[in-house]
Design goal:
Structural class: alpha/beta
Number of helices: 6
Bound molecules: guanosine-5'-diphosphate, magnesium ion
Shape: globular
Largest sheet: 7 strands, mixed
Helix content: 25-40%
Order of helices and strands: EHEEEHEHHEHEH
């Protein structure tokens, strides 16, 4: 609707990770679950826009999906350039997607460093938690340490299938140094 012409701040948020971890599903879940009258769903094929209120300020959140390019395990610098935050997603049922996380993080950091920017706030999402796996966490302790060691601001278990507190995840990125646990 007219929201599209809103001149409020625009935040670009990347959603990256291996193929099939649920990136597109997470974006769709987030965009469709609430504020359903406020969003402009898909623009082109690669990103979704959501208009929302953060601390009584209206902002536009542009969620960047990667369609197909995740096969290559890295993105072009242009893709990362304007981002203010990122989610790196893995699938709790597939350990190889967890192993790929550091690769994605390095790709992100190295390409943003080339533009002389600080590393952007990055949150780790352990998706498909509805599958009942605990393979990668030990009451969160291992994951907390992993996040610390690898420069993530925090992590969350998510399920695009059953729905999760996605708003909280998004909020983490606007308060990037906030403690998430
Ligand atoms: P992408 O390649 O990272 O964009 O992954 P998709 O969003 O296309 O999801 C890949 C597959 O995983 C699809 O069959 C989804 O239905 C499924 N999927 C995504 N999220 C979840 C989840 O939270 N739980 C379960 N059980 N399946 C999911
Ligand atoms: Mg996808």
């Amino acid at each position: 609707i007219m929201m599209w012409f809103c001149l409020c701040p625009l935040f670009q948020v990347l959603v990256i990770g291996d193929l099939g971890v649920g990136k597109t599903s997470i974006i769709k879940r987030y965009v469709h679950q609430t504020y359903s009258t406020n969003y402009r769903a898909t623009i082109g094929v690669d990103f979704a826009l959501k208009v929302l209120n953060w601390d009584s300020e209206t902002v536009r959140l542009q969620l960047w999906d990667i369609a197909g390019q995740e096969r290559f395990g890295n993105m072009t610098r242009v893709y990362y350039r304007e981002a203010m935050g990122a989610f790196i997603v893995f699938d709790v049922t597939r350990p190889t997607t967890f192993e790929a996380i550091t690769k994605w993080k390095e790709d992100l950091d190295s390409k943003l460093m080339l533009t002389n920017r600080e590393s952007i706030a990055t949150v780790l999402l352990a998706n498909k938690c509805d599958q009942g796996r605990e393979v990668l966490t030990n009451n969160g302790v291992k994951m907390d340490q992993f996040c610390k060691d690898n420069g993530f601001v925090g992590w969350f278990k998510t399920s695009a299938k059953v729905g999760t507190r996605t708003h909280k995840h998004m909020h983490t990125l606007t308060h990037p140094r906030a403690h998430t646990h």
